[in-house]
Amino acid sequence: MALRIPVNAPLLLMGLLTTGLAQLPIPASAPRGFWALPENMTVVEGAAAELRCGVSAPGSAVQWAKDGLLLGPDRRIPGFPRYRLEGDPARGEFHLHIEACDLSDDAEYECQVSRSETGPELVSPRVILSVLVPPKVLQLTPEAGSTVTWVAGQEYEVSCVSGDAKPAPDITFVQSGQVIPDISANVNAGSQEKLFTTEAKVRVTPQSSDNGQLLVCEGSSPALDTPIKVSVTMNVLFPPGPPVIEWPGLDEGHVRAGQTLELLCMSRGGNPPATLQWLKNGQPLSTAWGTEHAHSVARSMLVMMVRPEDHGARLSCEAHNSVSTKIQERGVMLQVTFPPSAITILGSASQSENKNVTLSCITKSSRPRVLLRWWLGWRQLQPTEETVMDGLHGGHISMSNLTFLVRREDNGLTLTCEAFSDAFTKETFKKTLTLNVKYPAQKLWIEGPPVGQRLRAGTRVRLVCLAIGGNPDPTLTWYKDSRTVTEPRPPQEPRRVQLGSLEKSGSTFSRELVLVTGPSDNQAKFTCKAGQLSASTQFVVQFPPTNVTILANASALRPGEALNLTCVSVSSNPPVNLSWDKEGERLEGVAARARSAPFRGSAAARSVLLRMSSRDHGHRVTCRAHSAELRETVSAFYRLNVLYPPEFLGEQVLVVTAVEQGEALLPVSVSANPAPEAFNWTFRGYRLSPAGGPRHRILSGGALQLWNVTRADDGLYQLHCQNSEGTAEALVRLDVHYAPAIRALQDPTEVNVGGSVDIVCTVDANPILPGMFQWERLGEEEEDRSLDDMEMTSKGSTGRLQIRQAKLTQAGAYQCIADNGVAPPARGLVRLVVRFAPQVEHPTPLSKVAAAGDSTSSATLHCRARGVPNVVFTWTKNGVPLDLQDPRYTEHTYHQGGVHSSLLTIANVSAAQDYALFTCTATNPLGSDHINIQLVSISRPDPPSGLKVVSMTPYSVGLEWKPGFDGGLPQRFQIRYEALGTPGFLYVDVLPPQATTFTLTGLQPSTRYRVWLLASNALGDSGLADKGSQIPITTPGLDQPSGEPDYQLPTEQPAGISEKTEAGSEEDRVRNEYEESQWTGDRDTRSSTVSTTDVEPYYHSTRDFSPQLPPTLEEVSYPRAFTGLEAEDVTFPGHLYDEVERLYAPSGAWGHLYDEVQMGPYDPRWPEDKFEDPRGIYDQVAENFDPMEPDSLPFELRGHLV
């Protein structure tokens, strides 16, 4: 049998030819044929399958064919990763194993044995491997997992489509757990060959029982162990059940008015649940309801208050939902029982005794009708007539008439109309009246003081009117002399009449009248009346006159005129005695005859005659009416009005003191009637405006008020007062006190050394007080402010500070203080200038300045001197006056108080011409002094000097020194030290290079050391001549305290120091107190001469030197083109010395001398606002300087330098 090679397998065949058939080592003697044949097999997709093939043909190649495609003899079967041959080839086992079968494996298979030398080829029977593919999904319409809303009884179509499967699945529908029999199904080709889909449809008619149930589509297949399912939830809409009303009690519809009726309406079933509403006679009454979804029950509770008008009303409950075809309803007819809402008695229950009363009792509508009966107290009365009528809301109205005779003993009894009915057995309805039988009172009398009793005015009297019996209650009315007594309105304080209200006690009635007796009550008749009955009483009241009146024959009087006054006393009981007095002085008068007066009293009169004076104005003349029996006095006074011209009183102030810039009040004490019409003030012949001015006003009383008072306001003020009767004048002095102001203070005050001088301070002040002058000396140190060797005197407005045998230490700033008690004290600054001959600074016998003599460099020589007045500098070279007209020489002169400087600049230094001795001479009118400066070539630095220990610890030592002459080049320092007894030296560079202090560390406690200090520049070091600057030290032990040493170890002194250099000149140690900077501090520079022990060197490097100089500039000569700020042409001071040396301005070298003016190295102009003409430096005179900060004062006034 030939091999069948499919046309569509050329690649596989080529692989077989390339690889070759598998050669199996089958013994030649083995029988040929199959001992195991494959069989048809069915597997589910994803499962493994194995087709058996057992061969007994030795030496043959075995392979499998799939739908005619040879898979090859390789046991791994290339190209088919899920295929492999299983079994032992030696035993002829060639079983085809397929992992995870899929649809591509569904085919016909055969096992083939290739031709061999011993036999023909063999082929097994074809078998079929059938791969079952289960459906993966079911697609349901409506969408699976959703909830569909259907209406019960309506038909709906549902479709279900399966996914690809093999074979085609069977589909069934299950509705609410029941299989639907009638479905239509179609099988269709799937998305691939051999796959099928099934589409099934069914028509569903849901019922109310299906609500909430599932409609399931099930797909079953041989490839599935259990069917796959999808479902939808059925939401079936159906109408609710009929409503049911739960009636409380047995009699449906029967209720009573006033009852709260609670009715429950309930409807079961329905989706959605029922909507309930209550109606009354077809009109909506309540639309509130609740739903219990778990049992699909809708409930609505109606709560209503039953009223009589609800009788015959129909209450109904309606139920429906969105799918109801009609509204379902349940109704109840109301039968309402109600009592009468009110009972009314018509007629009057008030009647006089022994007369008939007629009344009618009528009820409101009731259901059923009620019966009426009458009661008088506990006695039943028989009606005269009864009537029944139709009423509202289906009820009835009852009416009963009654007529009976009333007696006095019936008064106050209760008359009752009672309604009753069998329907209201537990209730009684009544209407009551109180019977009022009228009859008169029987007796009337008054209780109070006895008739005719004497009472003093103001006595409180109580009268009570009493009556017995009577109905209605008798009205008790009080009368006074036939006029009704009433309480006054508004009430008086205190109330003279208090009328009580009618009071009843049993059958006795009373009314009280309380009054405070007054003149009008004297012998008045008080009567109480009750109907036809009356009672009266009467008493006597004693009272003083109610008022006293004074009559005058004139109202306005002048001094010397007579005044007649008459005092009239009105009614009193008993009569009074009249008397006169004036401001306590008794006056004699003339009495008139007494006469009758109101309130049954008597009146009196008395006159007096007075002569007037101005002192009587305003006095009171008093008339007194005295009753001896009553011990009371009534008074009246008459105030005298005397017209007279102004008169100044004894307390008039004649001197007023005020403080300048303050206020002053010039008071006026004047008496006049009428009041002065005008107050006119005059000062120095000028009248002050009555309307006021910027600094004054005249007050209403005439006083003059001034403010911002000045000393010009001091003087006499004349006051002129005037009224209609005349005029008067007075003088008032204003004494203005003001703070002192310095008017004369000679500044500066000059004196030669050893001379005498007075510093005179004259002030303007008020008041001038003895001892108001004080003097202060301005200085930073306490000893600088001492005035022990000076004398202070004062006389009047002048104070003096006397100085005898003036010394340089007394030069400086002084302050004159004048204080007279008026703030602020006056302060004036004055400078005492102690004049002395020039003193040029002589740091050493010979100063040195280094510069390269290559005709390209420049050098600057510094010369500084002290002296007052200003000094003039001259220069010589080798004794020959220097020609400053030579363009190579430029001099700048600066003056700072008593310190003066001259800077000589030499351009294009030549060794042949300029290495010489230059002499600077300072001269003023008192003398002269000079210094020599040697201009030399640049060289190695001089050794430093003054090496000393400033601090020490067991492990370190702090050193300090003064640099020597740097040779004209930048220098640096190096420390060499050794431990005694230990061979070798150690070296330490000082950083920064220009530092003059250094802490040497790394030492050992209690060890002796020797330390050297070396200086070096670009040309070499200072050498170790004389061992250099050296010092021995011994570090303290660990148990010794550390800190600054209490001793100073000097450096070894070089030889060749002159006596003057070692000791210094006496003049160099004299301080002029005008100088803030001191010579020692100013000489602390790093360009120095030979090292010394006591005198600090004074050398300056000239390279890039640009000092900050004071504002006073004299004899300035600028190089050509030095006229402005053109940087390229400026030769001073920036680039002038570039070739000579670096700029090195050491700390303190020029610190105080030039610290007042800031001039940058590239700005040669002096600030214009700081420039001063030195010729006028002493021209100012201090007068009254305002206090200010020290830095805000002009420099010459700060007390620093003159």
From TrEMBL:
GO cellular component terms, A-Z: plasma membrane
Coiled coil: none
Disordered as annotated region, ranges: 1024-1111
InterPro entries found in the cross-reference section: CD80_C2-set (IPR013162), Cell_adhesion_signaling (IPR051275), FN3_dom (IPR003961), FN3_sf (IPR036116), Ig-like_dom (IPR007110), Ig-like_dom_sf (IPR036179), Ig-like_fold (IPR013783), Ig_sub (IPR003599)
Name of the featured protein: Nephrin
Lineage summary: Eukaryota, Metazoa, Chordata, Craniata, Vertebrata
Domain spans labelled Fibronectin type-III: 943-1038
Keyword list, A-Z: Cell adhesion, Cell membrane, Developmental protein, Disulfide bond, Glycoprotein, Immunoglobulin domain, Membrane, Myogenesis, Phosphoprotein, Repeat, Signal, Transmembrane, Transmembrane helix
One annotated GO biological process: muscle organ development
Chief localization: membrane
Function: Seems to play a role in the development or function of the kidney glomerular filtration barrier. Regulates glomerular vascular permeability. May anchor the podocyte slit diaphragm to the actin cytoskeleton. Plays a role in skeletal muscle formation through regulation of myoblast fusion.
Xref: Pfam families: C2-set_2, fn3, Ig_3, V-set
Species the sequence originates in: Equus caballus
Residue ranges with Basic and acidic residues bias: 1059-1074
Alphabetized CDD domains for the sequence: FN3, Ig
Gene3D superfamilies: Immunoglobulins
Bilayer topology annotation: Single-pass type I membrane protein
Superkingdom per UniProt: Eukaryota
Location of this chain's protein in the cell: Cell membrane
Signal peptide segment: 1-22
Classification via PROSITE patterns: FN3, IG_LIKE
Domain annotation Ig-like: ranges: 25-124, 135-233, 242-328, 340-434, 440-538, 544-635, 740-821, 838-939
Family statement: Belongs to the immunoglobulin superfamily.
